[in-house]
Amino acid sequence: MSIPSATPVATSPTSQEALDVLRSVFGYESFREPQGEVISTLVSGHDALVLMPTGGGKSLCYQVPALLRPGTAVVVSPLISLMQDQVAALTQAGVRAAFLNSSLSAQDAREVLRRLHDGSLDLLYLAPERLLQPATLERLAGVEISLFAIDEAHCVSQWGHDFRPEYLQLSALAERFPGVPRIALTATADERTRREIIERLGLTAARCFISSFDRPNIRYMIRQSGGSVRNELLAFIREHHAGDAGIVYCLSRKRVDEVASWLAAQGCEALPYHAGMSAGERASNQARFLNEEGLIIVATIAFGMGIDKPNVRFVAHLNLPKSIEAYYQETGRAGRDGLPANAWMSYGLQDVITLRQMMSASEAEETHKRVERHKLDAMLGLCEMTTCRRQALLGYFSETLSEPCGNCDTCLWPPQVWDATEAARKALSCVHRTGQRFGVTYLVDVLLGKDDERIRRFGHEQISTFGIGTEHSATEWRAIFRQLIARGLLDVDVEGHGGLRLTDACRPVLRGEQTLWLRREATPARRKASRRTARRDTAFTDPADNALWEALRETRLRLAREQGVPPYVVFHDASLAAMVEQRPGSMAELADIPGVGAAKLEAYGETFLGVLRGA
Ligand code: ADP
Ligand code: ZN
């Protein structure tokens, strides 16, 4: 949905030109919503604010106008890696683009400035601090500027995680360069950030384009760990993502190292990434992730910002994220290219307990803690729910999805629920009778009536809940406790021993006034059956197609290596997949493949046709 503006922009005569540029330069057939309108807004000299999810297609919103308006477009971007990627991709498409940042030698920087003054640059990427230097501003005043694009505009928000003080000064652009249209872009959805961007960047007159934040190509899958999360991850990768690039998130550095080397020992190409490593190691692992095919990065949340790799096929969480915002942002790094991707998570009782403890024990002030706590509760709610996860996710961001999505685990394999009222009452009264200070393992032992020295020492073999739970296994009881904690009927102690306490919310259940439906955990047999229905996501059914796919990928990698650019800058996976499906036999047919513009056709056409003919 894009919000219609009060003053409608007349259908611009340039829209045909825009379409021509889209086809000849970028090799795409048509604009996505709302690219076309954003472009005519800028081309006609007006400002725009664009909120689109990751992978929505923000770049074309300013790149196409940059080619249609006279002069150089100045793009403000917060990260060197993003600039490098964009400039490499544009150069491949035959667009005259460059960046100015600290990674350039003095000589290279002079060359970029020369091109700027010659009028031989269509786009110039700059970090905000460089743009705001008086010398730069003076230079820019002396050349023709087609537009200003402010990428990652949420960096202006002081409340966000990515706050960059220099972004605040970008409001000066309106005064210094009146008449030059400005466009701000972000993938951050919330209302407050949007208001801050408008206010701080002086965009009150800008036309606002707000897209749906749904990422339909991402399949959300959240499972309760059956014991070994590592093995579950490995099975998931082998089954769905052999040879694919992916990101695995863990909570601690130690765990990152452990999982990365374990995956490597199992034959997966996996590298660690966390703040405890040297800057050099980190940069090298990140570069390998970008430049090679099918590498897995195991990381703490420190990894991600500035990762523009379009063909990340899966994001896996081995721990529960702290909030839905974090979950959405991290999973959003999968499938930027629009092809099917998986967001997979496995979590267990211990996650819930650890996070609850971390939050109660934190030094933060009360109001802050309360907010954090609500966020964690919302995240837990998402994990434990039995209806469509996408509806809940979008609902959290105030967006309505009218039908269940059909592309999340609860839609695909609806979980069974059971009336757990009686079991919950037993569990809750066991907590009560033992004095609200014991952890799950002990409580389960009491419920099962275990002959145990500790239980006898406390005299708990005498209480009424001793041995009243033998109809469930220990595993089942753990799942019940997990869900009771997740739903806020039980609380975890602040002292950090994992002792459970009753909350007010559990009273109606204890008094028998509320029926409690819990999720039945999938038995191994059920899991196997459901697994069979899913296939490897990027695989073709015909072996000949798979062979061609691999051959095309190899050629792409070779061409990328020769030029020192990431493979996706040569062609995206979507373009290679279309080649496999359509088998173009001539340059004209190859030109019809999405992502094959004039420059790439000329540079790579014959090479790829050669591979296709050999297939
Ligand atoms: P964002 O910056 O919003 O995350 P990008 O601009 O990187 O997204 O675009 C995401 C992907 O979608 C890229 O692979 C891009 O080439 C592709 N894309 C963008 N617009 C179109 C379009 N009109 N038709 C086909 N593919 C497109
Ligand atoms: Zn769904």
Give the overall average pLDDT: 89
Give the DSSP E fraction (strand runs of 2 or more residues).
5-15%
Number of strands: 17
Q: In the CATH hierarchy, what is the architecture of the largest domain at level 2? A: 3-Layer(aba) Sandwich
Give the full name of the CATH homologous superfamily of the largest domain: P-loop containing nucleotide triphosphate hydrolases
Largest sheet: 7 strands, parallel
Cofactors and ligands present?
Answer: adenosine-5'-diphosphate, zinc ion
Which structural class fits the helix and strand makeup? alpha/beta
Shape: globular
In short:
By secondary structure, the chain is an alpha/beta fold. It has 29 helices and 17 strands. The longest helix is centred in the last third of the chain and has 21 residues, at 543-563.
Give an overview in words.
The protein is an alpha/beta fold and 615 residues long. It has 4 domains: 15-210, 3-Layer(aba) Sandwich (Rossmann fold), CATH 3.40.50.300; 218-412, P-loop containing nucleotide triphosphate hydrolases (Rossmann fold), CATH 3.40.50.300; 417-521, Arc Repressor Mutant, subunit A (Orthogonal Bundle), CATH 1.10.10; 543-613, HRDC domain (DNA polymerase, domain 1). Strand 10, helix 13 and strand 11 (296-299) form a beta-alpha-beta unit. Helix 15 (349-361) packs parallel to helix 22. The protein is globular, with a radius of gyration of 27 Å. The two termini are 43 Å apart. Mean pLDDT is 89; it is low at 1-11 and 524-536. It binds adenosine-5'-diphosphate and zinc ion. Residues 28, 31-32, 35, 52, 54-60, 310, 336-338, 572, 594 line the site of adenosine-5'-diphosphate.
